[in-house]
UniProtKB/TrEMBL annotation:
<dbReference type="InterPro" id="IPR003370">
    <property type="entry name" value="Chromate_transpt"/>
</dbReference>
<comment type="similarity">
    <text>Belongs to the chromate ion transporter (CHR) (TC 2.A.51) family.</text>
</comment>
<dbReference type="GO" id="GO:0015109">
    <property type="term" value="F:chromate transmembrane transporter activity"/>
</dbReference>
<keyword id="KW-0812">Transmembrane</keyword>
<feature type="transmembrane region" description="Helical">
    <location>
        <begin position="50"/>
        <end position="69"/>
    </location>
</feature>
<dbReference type="GO" id="GO:0005886">
    <property type="term" value="C:plasma membrane"/>
</dbReference>
<keyword id="KW-1133">Transmembrane helix</keyword>
<dbReference type="Pfam" id="PF02417">
    <property type="entry name" value="Chromate_transp"/>
</dbReference>
<feature type="transmembrane region" description="Helical">
    <location>
        <begin position="75"/>
        <end position="95"/>
    </location>
</feature>
<keyword id="KW-0472">Membrane</keyword>
<dbReference type="InterPro" id="IPR052518">
    <property type="entry name" value="CHR_Transporter"/>
</dbReference>
<feature type="transmembrane region" description="Helical">
    <location>
        <begin position="143"/>
        <end position="172"/>
    </location>
</feature>
<feature type="transmembrane region" description="Helical">
    <location>
        <begin position="6"/>
        <end position="29"/>
    </location>
</feature>
<keyword id="KW-1003">Cell membrane</keyword>
<protein>
    <recommendedName>
        <fullName>Chromate transporter</fullName>
    </recommendedName>
</protein>
Amino acid sequence: MHKNWLLFKIYLIAGTFTFSGGLAMLPLIEREVVHKHHLMTKAELYEYSTLAQTLPGVIALTNAFLVGRKINGRVGMFAAGLGAILPAFILMSLATTAYQMIPQSGVTLSILSAVRAASAAFLFSAAYSLAKFNLTDWVTITVALVCFGLTAFSLVGAPTIIVGAGILGVALTAQKRRGKHA
């Protein structure tokens, strides 16, 4: 029961205090799950975070399901998942009601502008953490830069990029294995 409560609490806090979605939560989840409570390794967390980005759906919820299941099975998966979606559900319900009542000028616009800037900082922090962990050689750096360029300039959709990167990964791994056995 302790692990389930801990998973719920970690994702509840991450969902409440990090804006911008699942990737923005990553540094906080890493600090709690990996460094503070030692529930999984950094490599496992980043593997699940990367996988969560490639699957359809909400990244935060997918990440919570994967991490929760790894730590404490199906019950852990549901505890982490509930913790991940509850803040968004409550905050969005309150925000939609309040947004219609608050004048859309002055202080409100200033607050929203600052929150958007903070959200960008959370995303940069998550991107930096993922890059530091995953971009380990010239091949991974090149693949990441090409994928970024294709995405940033809307040249190819995300599913095509993911499938293409997966196929490239299989081909590169096969090539490495052939080189070792030769």
